[in-house]
Write a structure and sequence with these properties.
376 residues, alpha/beta, Fumarate Reductase Iron-sulfur Protein, Chain B, domain 2, Rossmann fold, 3 domains, 4-stranded parallel β-sheet, globular
Length: 376
């Protein structure tokens, strides 16, 4: 099957809804409609490999969601990136991320032995080595290695312990889920990661997987063959535990908080309510909403490998727009449920000079505050 048939490009209407909905097209040289037309008229992906903007796409998939013919323009871009990877025509930062993942199991190229440094004094059993559990908590690369994010899994572990959840992790055996790797075009490496992780999941003895990141949740839910496994993002489990009375709060968080929907949780999986239910349950917290929220949420620009590829666009980044919008509506905190969103929004707060006025928090940090956890 050739490229055009695989992506059903002959059905493209050239209506432009893909580009019209693209969150980066206004400031970056990415015109999805023109790109689709180049491939369609040229009859080969080769003609579009030099099109500007291929590395600007965040694979947020709004183009796919808006297509009236049910096509997947975001997958066309992933396919074109795969052609570039095959020919060795990729930015050095992408090469470094792919090589780091191949050698060390993470795009930052950090040593595998350091993957459990996030734990600190947290006691989390390693499954298959230290026994079995009901849940496998998949930490993810960013929370494992990034200093800003390392407290996030520690908080979740504390919450799970308090709620009486039986869980463990893969420890140093955990490798990148591959969500961003596939979207950077390295399908072969993604398949290796999928095979390795699936093998470890089966060996762990669990039938339920919990993720920190919506990106891990997405790839396990839709791109792995995990028959018999239940996969949840942590917001889904916590929302249920709060309803069941297994999580209670002892302190008020008297702040106006606006929630930012991550693309891989909201747009792509329609998980809109659980994060909001958690925030609404926190005493004293007033939940605000962006004008662009839920399925219309403005992409932070952190997905699709963009954490390792500098975009070619000019002007305000979406993260900067998001921070300014929150400040204008009177919000005191932007909350999110994604490691990438947290990092990009914090960058936006810094570059707009609003870092002090508009702190960015993971939902788990607000939950920890309301539960009185001062030592995580």
């Amino acid at each position: 099957m050739d490229f055009l048939e695989k992506h059903e490009l002959y059905a493209c209407l050239q209506c432009g809804k893909c580009t019209g909905g693209c969150p980066v097209s206004l400031r970056a040289p990415l015109n999805i409609r023109s790109l689709m037309r180049e491939v369609l008229m040229g009859g080969s992906p080769e003609v579009a490999l030099d099109c500007p903007g291929l590395w600007d796409c965040t694979t947020c998939a709004i183009c796919t969601l808006r297509c009236p013919r049910g096509l997947k323009p975001s997958e066309v871009i992933v396919g074109l990136r795969a052609e570039l990877v095959e020919g060795g025509r990729v930015p050095k930062t992408i090469i470094d991320a792919l090589e780091g993942t191949f050698k060390h199991g993470n795009p930052w190229g950090r040593a595998r032995q350091k993957r459990i440094e996030w734990k600190g004094d947290t006691a989390v059993k390693t499954l298959s080595d230290e026994g079995e559990a009901e849940w496998l908590y998949f930490i993810g690369c960013a929370p494992s290695y990034d200093p800003r994010l390392q407290r996030i899994p520690r908080i979740l572990c504390r919450i799970l312990e308090t709620a009486g959840i039986d869980f463990g992790s893969l420890g140093t055996k955990e490798s990148c889920c591959g969500n961003e790797i596939r979207r950077m075009g390295e399908t072969g490496l993604f398949e290796e990661l999928r095979e390795e992780n699936t093998k470890n999941f089966n060996a762990s003895g669990v039938k339920a997987i919990l993720t920190t990141s919506p990106h891990c949740f997405n790839t396990f839910s839709t791109e792995y063959d995990l028959d018999g496994f239940k996969v949840l993002h942590y917001t889904q489990l916590l929302a249920d535990l709060i309803k069941e009375g297994e999580i209670t709060f002892s302190k008020e968080v008297n702040k106006k908080v606006v929630y930012h929907d991550p693309c891989f949780l909201g747009k792509q999986h329609e998980i809109f309510d659980p994060p909001r239910e958690i925030l609404k349950a926190i005493p004293g917290l007033e939940l605000l909403e962006f004008d662009r929220c839920r399925e219309r949420s403005l992409c932070c620009e952190g997905g699709g490998g963009r954490m390792w590829a500098e975009g070619a666009g000019e002007g305000e980044r979406n993260s900067e727009v998001r921070v300014k919008d929150a400040h204008a509506m009177g919000a005191e905190i932007i909350a999110t449920a994604c490691p990438f969103c947290l990092l990009t929004l914090e960058d936006g707060a810094k570059t707009t000079g609003l870092e002090e006025e508009m702190p960015i928090r993971e939902i788990l940090e607000l939950v920890a505050e309301a539960m009185g956890f001062d030592d995580v």
